[in-house]
Amino acid sequence: MLFSSVSFLFVFLPLLSAIIFLSPKKLHNLELLLASIIFYAFGEPRFLPIIFAVILISYIGALLISKFTKFKTILLCLTLISNLSFLFYFKYFDFFISIVNDITGSNIALNKIILPLGISFYTFQAISYVVDVYRNEVKVQKNLYKFSLYVCLFPQLIAGPIVKYHDIAESLEKRDITFENISLGIKRFIIGLAKKMLLANTLGAVADSVFSQSPNAVSAGISWLGAVAYTLQIFYDFSGYSDMAIGLGMIFGFRFKENFNYPYISNSVSEFWRRWHISLATWFKEYLYIPLGGSKNGNLKTIRNLGIVFLLTGLWHGASWNFILWGGVNGFFIILEKLLNIKEISAKYTKLWHRFLMHGYCLFVVIIGWVLFYNTNFINAFAHIKNMLFLVPAENITATYTLPYYLETEEILAFLVAILCSMPLFKNILYIQNSWAKIGINIWLLLLYALSVMEIAAGTYNPFIYFRF
Amino acid sequence: MKKNILIDTIFLLIFFVSLILPITRISQEKVAKNEKRFLNTYVPLYDSVQKKINFNYGIDFENYLKDRFWGRAELVKTNKMLKYHLSRRYVKFGELVLDKKKKIMYEHLIAGRTNKNNESYIINGLKAFNEFCTKNNIKFYPVIMPRKESVYPPDLVINNKNKEIKESVRYVSNQSGVKIIFTLDEILAQKAKIPYMLYHKTDHHATMDGAYIGYKTLMKVLKKDFPQIKIIPPEDFDYSENKKVNTDGGKNYKNGETCFLSGIPELCCENFLDINYRYVKYKNADKLQIKGTYNEKIIRGDYFYPQGADLRVMIFGDSFTPNLLKFLPFSFKNIRYIRLNGPKAIKREERFRILKYYETEILEFRPDIIITYHFYSTYPKLRDIATP
């Protein structure tokens, strides 16, 4: 089930809200757990055993780690291996086989394994809990169903944010559902839905219309248009989903940490990664980078550690070389910035044009990175990048479409709004207390909701144009 | 503070009511008329007949609710109207594009060259079918009418791929040894000379003028092998004009299929139907006899015209063929027309399997000529004509 689906909006959410708001507090955890299982099973019932297995392994593993401290390292390793083996099999096994085939020239058949929804998120979430128990940073949760609720709580189950157990441990035991939180949560949810339906989808269509063509059918300008469209699409898609997750969490009494902090205002790639998918970056920092030694053991080891982290960050996003390359490119620039001591440079050069240059550099790297992220075909990706760098002579390009094909009023508006909202201009808009402003904002939010629902409805309109025969 | 609570209370009330409203009434219609498809039906969680759980229940329920929630049609229409008014010139509904300035609608923007694999299958299909025809003393003529986008390219398109399309057809013709009659060049040549549209603005079909060019191009080729054939000249027809669309030869003039599929016909059709199309009637049509099977349109028909050439013709076609049949029957004594996308009993993906479903009929009818007549969108389907 997706948050933008009609089943979720018109059935699941109102029904669950009614049940939770009208039932006694002591039943809330159980109700949420059942609802989360139904939420997941709605689209993927056959993969329920996987998530249950991850829950059980992590629960038992943490219990044993806290009880048998003498063997806790071995127990931790066993738990991690077990959890990661699910992730490896479902997400990376076919990729691994294809690498073996490429290297050895063999022809081992791929299993065409279907990826269970959210496995990357809930596996990492479960691992973070077990490691935190190992480190004595959290108390072990002895109640299986509360722990299950932590892992499969539906707002963050399929697309994050990756929630640390520590952040909601208290809420699992005791939380209040207040009018203020419901109100803020709904508003946050609507903003997330609008980001997804009105901005991400519109800009995604522009990106697809550019990248679906052969690179020599688009000019440099159009390649840039596609790249910028995708840069904005992926942000609004992902942050929109995070907003919806955070909003839904608030409605039911949970406070999740922010997952995005206006990443496109960054002045360095390092800063970008402090603002982009914060929960994932934090996870890799706390559970991989720091255990590897972080930046404490000299430059060479720092480079190694950063390289490993970013290659794996890329790999986490998808079992394909383009994701690894994307991770590697980001890692390269972060290493470079670390070696050049970008923090000192930023502190030293503060004039507007310095900031402008640094911001431009950051955006350039990020946008090029997204082109790699988008295209699983390297040849296409590099051809588009070559185009973007104006390295393709104009006579080699036979454009198929004019500019209005990509940009009509709707797309231009989406670009403008997306660029504006990528800056923290409206950061605290939901917290304004002036009554008249509040009325205006609420009307605006209801309008956004109506427009989003219209887009959802329009997506259900499916005339038989294509089967002309 | 109290005021703010009241403001938010009203906000939340409106929001939750709007969440619940769509499921207060579920449409029980079977068909979405303006989408030309069946609406998804409810599939229960437990199949009591097969006694098993439906593990696709979530997907089935979503599909069912998506098609039937209350207010869906109004929301879709409002969304489309907003997009229509917001757009400066081009309104895009998926692949469907409306050009508000030139007042023309397109269901797709371009038709590219079919890929190499497809071409080899088409070559094999044509070869095999031609062998069957040759073995049975039948002459085979495949005719392809171009898509509207090839004749009236949208201004959005710089390279409409006509060159690639022609190359593909030429290549397939050469490799298969079967001459495909692709009417694009003739239609483009006549476009400037005829003061009427050759394709409808709000429909994907050719007009009568466009169809006549198709007819004449075909007849010129046939005449080389059958000199006794007479090509009916334009002067032998009576003409009438109408702003609306009639491509099936019936009595009804409509807004056009593309307009219908846009979902906002009331908003834009009057604007787009701003020119006249020509419609024809043969002056000596009174001697024509038709024995047809109807299903809103003729899906198969025997045409008898005593003054036509003494040849038996079988023509297999699609929705482009009825316009051709305004001209073709007057050139031959007996034509049997079979519409390939007519019979519902044949699965959609098999409808072009002419030999599979009609071989016996062909052998019984014993035509001198077999014509396939359809438009470029279904050109790849030629791969199936000899498939058993």
**Assembly type:** heterodimer
Low-pLDDT windows of residues of chain A: none
Q: What percent of residues of chain A adopt helix (DSSP H or I)? A: over 70%
Structural class of chain B: alpha/beta
| Secondary structure tally: strands of chain B | 16
Over all CA atoms, what is the radius of gyration of chain A? 23 Å
Uncertain stretches of chain B: none
Sheet having the most strands of chain B: 7 strands, mixed
Instruction: Kindly report the average pLDDT value of chain B.
Output: 90
Shape of chain A: globular
Give the H and E element order of chain A: HHHHHHHHHHHHHHHHHHHH
Percentage of helical residues of chain B?
25-40%
What is the molecular shape of chain B? Answer: globular
Distance between the termini of chain A: 33 Å
Provide the residue-averaged pLDDT of chain A: 92
Give the strand tally of chain A: 0
Task: Count the DSSP helices of chain A.
Answer: 20
